[in-house]
Amino acid sequence: MLQFDAPLICLQGAQVLRIQQPLFSTNRKSKSLAVSWPLPSFATMGTTSSSFSALQDPFDATQFQQVLSTWLAPMRLECSHPLLVGWYNKARAETADGTQSIEGPDDAVAFAIYSVPQFLEVVVEHYAREKPERDIVDGATNAILGELRNQLPSSLDAQVINTDVGPPYFHVQTIGAVCAEDQHVEAEDVKGEGSAEWREDLEDRLEETRDPKMWGTESAMRRYAYRALVVLRNGKQALEKPEPLEFLSIEDKKRVLSEYNLRHQLCLWRDLSESHPADRRYSPDEFFFFTETSPEKRRCENDHEDEQP
């Protein structure tokens, strides 16, 4: 069986790819990022944009999603559709023997939080203000999540976790799949005339470029993806599980799988078509920052941004 290296997730040993819709692609032709100084503090941004105190009983997942989305927007973060803890735990039981399960009632509602274009502005501002000694991206994320914990009503018994750090550790790409935030893509999804030849050709090229037994994820590949998980253990609701996403064309599936497997470090697999909305693309600064894996080089880039007037 042909197996592809996965940028985000492994399921039952088969290498697959999860793509978010709309996928945030890289706009390498755009001008550099313009940072507006100073951005408000996370506490100010949250309290002025939304109020969780306005939530009404009984708990309503749609209302909570709207309030959370509004609260996150100034920090260049977005939240997923609501999902149930039971959906995720069932998927993990079927694909990974129940590892990385969420502790909570099956009907408890949860949300994944992910960053979007211009999140680098937030990281730069936090670095300029706080000068964190460790990972500067996680430093900004943790500060935001800390303020979110303070804002959430205690009655919801919320658990807010930085999924890049843990513990606990969760398989956020599985979360994205069960709440229809991601499309699950693997080689067998490429069908039609010439598909068998395409898979065979890619398999041959993979044998020339990397160990076919090489597994795991590439940490740099999720920089523009999931940041956190919010589990509302007392926020319970019967939800209808959405149908899996299916939005990529056959040609896009081929290109994305080929790009990731053959030269994932270039991040071209993140791009969709030229018609992708410009406001959903990454700037060159964001692209180079988040594909740089050296903490010291990232810090130097932030120092350079800090010098801007």
Describe this structure in words.
This protein is an alpha+beta fold and 309 residues long. It has one domain. The strands form three sheets. Strands 4, 5, 6, 7 and 9 form a five-stranded antiparallel sheet that branches. Strands 1-2-8 form a three-stranded antiparallel sheet, with helices on one face. Strand 1 and strand 2 form a beta hairpin. Helix 4 crosses helix 5. The N terminus and C terminus are likely disordered.
Outline of this structure?
The chain has 10 helices and 10 strands.
In round numbers, the mean pLDDT is 74
Work out the count of structural domains.
1
- Give me the Rg, rounded: 20 Å
Helical/strand content category: alpha+beta
Count of beta strands: 10
Question: Strand share of the residues?
Answer: 15-25%
Question: Low-confidence stretches at least 5 residues in length (pLDDT < 50)?
Answer: 1-40, 211-224, 305-309
**Largest sheet at a glance?**
5 strands, antiparallel
Helical residue percent band? 25-40%
Q: How many alpha or pi helices?
A: 10
Shape: globular
How far apart are the first and last residues' alpha carbons, in Å? 56 Å
Overview features:
309 residues, alpha+beta, 10 helices, 15% strand, disordered N terminus, disordered C terminus
